[in-house]
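Hi there,

I know you've been waiting on this one. I reran it after we fixed the sequence typo, so this is the corrected version. Both the input and the resulting structure follow.
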Amino acid sequence: MSESLFFIALVPPSPFKEEITRLKMEMAEKYSSKHALKSPPHITLHMPFKWKEKKMDHLKRTMATMNEQMEPFAIKLKNFDFFEPRVVFVDVIKNEKLESLQKMVVDTCRKELKLDNANYKNRPFHPHVTIGFRDLKKPQFYEAKKVFENREVGFEFEVHHLSLLTHDGKQWNTVNF
């Protein structure tokens, strides 16, 4: 039986998506961290999960239902933060509507899709947009941290829908439905 890997996220609209991609490219060029370029800029709401292709209609219907229930709201990204010793990200300002949306996504996925892997290693939801991770070596991480901790950046945009992303064996792509 064929399975694919998916996750649910918020993907910033243009031009923010392209601006954040430029930050990812900077991480790749200056600090040899290319892994973040394998997905569009995003805020993860539900961690990756495997799903059988024969059940795709059910997944797409569930996504459509969640999108119908979602009310648009503003998200603010401001400056940079870090998960030592490997992750550099644009920070998301605390937002009750985002917290509620993430809880709704997790609850719906648990009830409707029977998924129970929403919390990565039981860590609380910490929304962020990763620009460097996984292949970022410790010396480069600390070098990047010195640069990015004093650098200012800010984005504000309205989110109107959830995105479903799938892995094609090399990178993550947005599923259109």
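Quick highlight: The mean pLDDT is 94.

Best,
R. S.
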